[in-house]
Amino acid sequence: MAGKGVRGLSEALRSLTLTTQACGQVSSRLPSTFTRSMATEATLPRATSNLTTTSMTTPWRPSPAVPVTVYDFQTYEPQRLEEWSSKHLHLPMRRDILHLAVIFEGDNTRQGSANSKTRWEVHGSHRKLYRQKGTGRARVGDKQSPLRRGGGKVFGPKPRDFGTGMNRKVYDLAWRTALSYRYRRGELVVCEDGMELALPQEISDMMAQGQLRDQALVDGFKAKWARQVLDGHEWGRAHGRSTFITTEWRENLFNAMDLVPNYGMALDIEDVDVKDLLTTGRLVIEREALAEMIKRHQSDLCSKVFINGVKPSPPETGKIIVQ
Amino acid sequence: MRRIARLRKPSGAPLASIARPLCIQRAATRPSPSPAVQINTVRFYSSRQPETLPASLADSKRAVPEVLEDAVEGTEVQEYDLHPAEPRVFVPPPRPSVAERADTITDNLYTPASTAEGLESIGNLGNWWDDPEHWPETSDFVGFTPKQKVQEPVLIEAAVRRALTEALVVKQLGKDDQLTGHWGMQDRAQHDAVLALGLKVDSDGKATVTGNLQSVAEGLVAKDGEAAVDSAFALPSAAEALAWKQQSDHSWKGASLLEARVKFAVIKRVMQLTGHVVPDQKLAEIATARGLLATLQKPPKPKTFSQEIETKKQDLISLPNVAFSPKRVTRGHKDMALGRFKLIEAEFKKRDLQGGPLSVPKSREMKHWKGDA
Questions:
Q1: Where is the composition biased (Basic and acidic residues) (chain B) (predicted)?
Q2: Is the pTM of this model over 0.80?
Q3: pLDDT of residue B34
């Protein structure tokens, strides 16, 4: 701390010798820090030292496309390299939008069927229980009074729609932001189409021949096989579980993932929402499912307005570079 | 009638292929952006033969309990054999046997049991596959990556050099289509042969391989039915790799990886050799072999915060006014530091009381502090 202070002081003094310097030089020799923190030892931001002429003049131009490796599902062998649009898979993180989307989905998933009876709905006679005066007891009305046990509920829940709204373009942006977040963290594994848990030929034969009639036996095999596959690729329980997303129901994969819920889950593309994309350790997704997902959620990228008689096309994506 | 399966003696050489279910066929109406790639060389489990058979498999009678065999002597036995000619990797359970009805037994000495006491419990089939005799280790799933991830930085460097050399050899021989194919995992000798090839890199990063390129390229072609060699056998030991590193110059690390096909081939091969997957978002940054090494050689992330401080933030621990403890400091630890814990333990023993663990849940700790029991 003390050393930093001395350095700061000497730099400050040096910068004050303005007489022999041109203005441009002065700015480059300004002290990196004028203040020092009282609370922490964290390095203070260097205001001027990192600024070079190149970084001042060259604007940041992000790459229009990002590479995506497509793997074979079960073996995890890389099959080819593709280029996907940055607007699909490399968007900046927007925590606020993701939060909005997850809350929006949660609201719309609520069943909203809670129901309680008011005093007018509780069964029974509305006769006055006993007379108003002369009993020495507190005055009462009918049995359904909210004050009495078994009576009605005053402001109880009634079936209602908890659903909220969200602008479609914002929701679509949230969807792609979630995918981009996964991509950036290396948690988006894109696999070949037709992702299915392939069982060994011998077991398939045994099942076809009726040797494995006991369902517990088949389930036991599928569960152990799925655990081995997932552990082999570091996708399993020890590595934060995985979400498998396919275009349609795949019997072995979906059954096996139901049997090993500690290892992750498998979802049909129709069942996926933004929260699912953010839940587990990684997404293992079929290429076609990813393309379909993006196709459905890019309303903010392709305008409906025709320009010069042509409808603007969405950004090109999924171009094969190496195969 | 007796229905007891006799398990045939398997020869122990697993041969299996993948059963691809029909449901993965794509709908014809959808455009196909990714053509299906048939991998001929895919093997789901190791085809190395076990040296000795498990005792249960060597003895085919084991599956039939002797008691049962004696009890139903002379009855017809049904055997089944799915593929008499093929060896068996997974052993299914025998068919269920049906006990004779008590009223049909002619033996006068036989009295049916009236209680379950003394009867053997045989369990159910829920954990049939957990038995290594029913699912031997050789039948375990084997993917593209090795079972054990290579973590030694020297070995990773050797693997990158090997992958780079092999990719450049294939490219120099003009076999560009081979660059993206499946390469066989050869043995140790092949590894040494590849590393022995010369690799010259000019100032632009253009690399040239010299030596016997043809034999290396031939060795890369994966043969069907070839035994899968785990990279543990295909790579040298850490000491050997270190010796190799010390006597080789490091100019090869400047080799350019800007060409997409070469980069893809190198990364795929490194994945096969070491088990390290290069995440997609890093691909664009990697321009040279040095860049790839920097990505791969990062030590694994510490599992706990205390581990991270111990390994990476040594300067924090060495501060004079900071005490570091990997776990929560409890009353017991304080007693230990003061030398009081031994006395407490002795007093506990004297009174025949349990000392209890050093660390107790916070709720119990609070009770102690409050003076509760």
A1: 362-373
A2: no
A3: 44
